[in-house]
Amino acid sequence: MRSLAITVSSLMAACLGLTGCASWLPKASADPVYFSSFDHARAAVEAIVPGQTRLDELQALHLDTEHQPNTLVLSYADILRRVMGGSVLAKQDLAPGIQQCLEAHDACRGLEFNISSIHKDRVGSFLLDFINFKRETVTSGWRFNALVLSVDGVVVYRSWGGQPEVNLVDKQRNPLGPLQEIGPAIVTTH
Predict the structure, then answer these.
(1) Number of domains making up the chain
(2) In this structure, are residues 111 and 119 in contact, taking their beta carbons and an 8 Å threshold?
(3) Tell me: the pLDDT tens digits for 136-150?
(4) Do the beta carbons of residue 73 and residue 109 sit within 8 Å?
(5) Dihedral, CA atoms, 81, 84, 86, 87, nearest 10 degrees?
(6) Are the CB atoms for 102 and 75 separated by under 8 Å?
(7) What is the pLDDT of residues 106-139, one digit of tens each?
(8) Could you tell me which of 130, 112, 113 has the C-alpha nearest to residue 122?
(9) pLDDT of residue 2
(10) Is 73 exposed, middle or buried (0-12, 13-18, 19+ CB in 10 A)?
(11) pLDDT tens sequence across 17-43
(12) Looking at per-residue confidence, does 93 or 63 come out higher?
């Protein structure tokens, strides 16, 4: 136990003596395979012309399961649940492309794209973060989603949405530092 305390104390002293300890803080990122921005993804979806664009042409736009590995392939039943499940809308109230897809039953297919670029960076003092007194995480990036419906290999409907800018700051302060988590552990063990 004494050697652990000496090791931790040595690490803290070394960090205090060095500049750039903040670079020791954890970072995480998830970037899309192809699209570099929200607008880049939006432009690709807007290039789809309902009634003209064929499903095989989506590959050139990088809107296929090969280029976007987390793409959901939707069956007729999936699409029906998404557009009609619990809705008070009648079928005739839906967009013409959605109506055409629903009328085609099993010939109706869908692709749902969820594309994002998210970066999480812990910022601030390495020492305060390391000993769990103060942690600050900055999350930035963008999230994009799109729905493409097709009948017999021809796109009949497309829509997009999302969050063009993600900017979140999560601040955690623990007045007891590393001892903060001991209280719940003592209370729950008998």
Answers:
(1) 1
(2) no
(3) 888 889 999 999 999
(4) yes
(5) 160
(6) no
(7) 999 999 999 888 888 877 767 666 666 677 888 8
(8) 130
(9) 58
(10) exposed
(11) 444 566 676 666 566 667 889 999 999
(12) 63
What is the three-state SS of the chain? CHHHHHHHHHHHHHHHHCCCHHHHCCEEEECCCCCCCHHHHHHHHHCCCCCCCEHHHHHHHCCCCCCCCCCEEECHHHHHHHHHCCCCCCHHHCCHHHHHHHHCHHHEEEEEEEEEEEEEEEECCHHHHHCCCEEEEEEEEEEEEEEEEEECCEEEEEEEEEEEEEEEEEEEECCCHHHCCHHHHHHHCC
Domain of residue 60: give its range. 26-188
72 token code pair: 């959901």
Residue-level length of the chain: 190
The reply to whether 168 falls in a domain is yes
Domain-located, residue 20: no
- The verdict on residue 21 lying in a domain is no
**Domain membership flag for residue 36:** yes
Furthest CA-CA distance within the chain: 75
Picking from 90-99, 150-159, 175-184, which range would have the lowest pLDDT averaged per residue? 175-184
Structure-block tokens of residue 92: 């005739």
